[in-house]
Amino acid sequence: MGAQQIAGQVSAEDLTAVMDSLRSLVRALRISTRAVEKEIGISGAQLFVLQQLQDAPARSVNELAERTSTHQSSVSTVVSRLVERGMVKREPSADDARRMEISITERGLALLGAAPRTAQIRMMEALRRMPQPRLHELAEALETLVRDAGFAGEGAPMFFEDEGPGDG
Questions:
Q1: Do 82 and 46 form a contact (C-beta atoms < 8 A)?
Q2: How far apart are CA 67 and CA 144, in angstroms?
Q3: What are φ and ψ of residue 42, in 5° steps?
Q4: Do the Cβ atoms of 120 and 29 come closer than 8 Å?
Q5: How many CA atoms lie within 13 A of 87 on its CB side?
Q6: CA-CA distance, 90 to 97, in Å (whole number)?
Q7: How far apart (Å, rounded) are the C-alpha atoms in residues 120 and 37?
Q8: Above 80 in pLDDT, residue 8?
Q9: Using H for helix, E for strand and C for coil, what is the string for the chain?
């Protein structure tokens, strides 16, 4: 049979390759998150947000959500935790006082100096290097997997944020 799909059957080799790839991704994310928590005491998601704010403040939570490729509500929760820890600040925008700009504080910058490079950053860099048609194909395949496995309605918080330190 080989690696081809024949008469509605799924190739065992392809299925194994997909499952191994997913396990590798989850393992890398979990190891990265644990290393971040152990080394600097914040969650991987919190570090990921700090890294996104390092170069420039975000004009809004929505902009930061776009930068992190995450839903606005998940980013808002992470930002709130970082504000509580004094690593991020929210201030009214100079252009529009109704909008809150988000920026990293000196404390957050100091923490970044000791931070490891996260698996999330490495994954996003790899995805950005992927040709657009292939990235689109991957996005569609993963959306189908999530939907068909029955996970679509469960929401998608930032990786392991619900398991990180400071959660309660």
A1: yes
A2: 24
A3: -125, 165
A4: yes
A5: 25
A6: 12
A7: 14
A8: no
A9: CCCCCCCCCCCHHHHHHHHHHHHHHHHHHHHHHHHHHHHHCCCHHHHHHHHHHHCCCECCHHHHHHHHCCCHHHHHHHHHHHHHCCCEEEEECCCCCCCEEEEECHHHHHHHHCCCCCHHHHHHHHHHHCCHHHHHHHHHHHHHHHHHCCCHHHCCCCCCHHHCCCCC
Using 50, 70 and 90 to split pLDDT, how confident is the model at 70? confident
In whole angstroms, give the CA distance from residue 107 to residue 77.
19
- Residue 156 CA: distances (Å) to CA of 2, 72, 73: 35, 11, 10
SS3 7: coil
Within 23-163, strands assigned E span 88-92, 100-104
Please write the tens of the pLDDT for every residue from 93-102.
Answer: 888 878 889 9
The contacts of residue 58 (CB under 8 Å, 6+ apart) are 52, 64, 67, 101, 102, 103
d(CA 34, CA 41): 9
* Band (129; pLDDT cuts 50, 70, 90): very high
Query: Does residue 163 register a pLDDT over 50?
Result: no
